[in-house]
Amino acid sequence: ANSVGRTIFQKICYVVTEMGVATGFHFSKGSYGPFAGEVKLALHEFANRNWLQEQNMGRMMALHVGPQYEHDRSKFRAEIERHERKIAKTVDLFSRVKNTEQAEEVLTVLFASRQLKQAHPNEEMTEQQLLDYILEWKKSWRTDEKQQAIAGAIRNLVLLGWVRLLLSDSLAEAA
User: How far apart are CA 117 and CA 70, in angstroms?
Assistant: First the structure.
């Protein structure tokens, strides 16, 4: 499995929260996609409980399970089992994510999709509308390479069933 740093952990928290697990996190648009300040506080709490250890790996602070976690995990068995399907779906998504940059792209697509659908609840949205919305938010992503990456992320998330959008021929050409 790829290493999980603080940024990817933030994105995992977003997915789990969006799937209905009561995390207490409140996400908004951030520089690297969805962001909740409470996640940093949770990381500190996990570290204080010795459930989590951080290791410096170049530019990334890799997160590793701490020794106390296995001991305390049984206390949360019922909660873990209740959310087992959501956990498995989240693991499946993140097992497809190769690095932090791709995590930012994928989770920006998910977050933007939710934002766009909230703004237009009775309309079916297209992949192109979502791409345009993202490029309006992240103007620095208006390069051919980045647009191709985002178009690919949108199409993959549609095919995997993470977002429901009408397919756009123009997006297929970009991806």
Answer: 40
Residue with tokens 């989590």: 52
In angstroms, the CA 84 to CA 120 distance is 31
Classify burial at 8, counting beta carbons within 10 Å of its beta carbon; exposed 0-12, middle 13-18, buried 19 or more.
Answer: buried
**How far apart (Å, rounded) are the C-alpha atoms in residues 97 and 103?**
6
Tokens describing residue 49: 């409980």
- How distant is the alpha carbon of residue 34 from its chain centre? 7
Q: Which residues 6+ apart lie within 8 Å of 57 measured at CB? A: 3, 5
The pLDDT tens digits of the residues spanning 23-77 come to: 999 999 988 889 999 999 999 999 999 999 999 988 888 999 999 999 999 999 9
Q: What is the largest CA-CA distance in the chain?
A: 52
Question: Angle, to 10 degrees, between the axis of helix 144-159 and the axis of helix 100-119?
Answer: 70
CB 10 within 8 A of CB 39: yes
The token pair at 11 is 């994105």
The C-alpha R_g of the chain, in whole angstroms, comes to 17
The one-character DSSP state at 139 is G
Amino acid at residue number 43:
L
By residue count, the chain amounts to 175
Q: Enter the pTM of the model.
A: 0.90
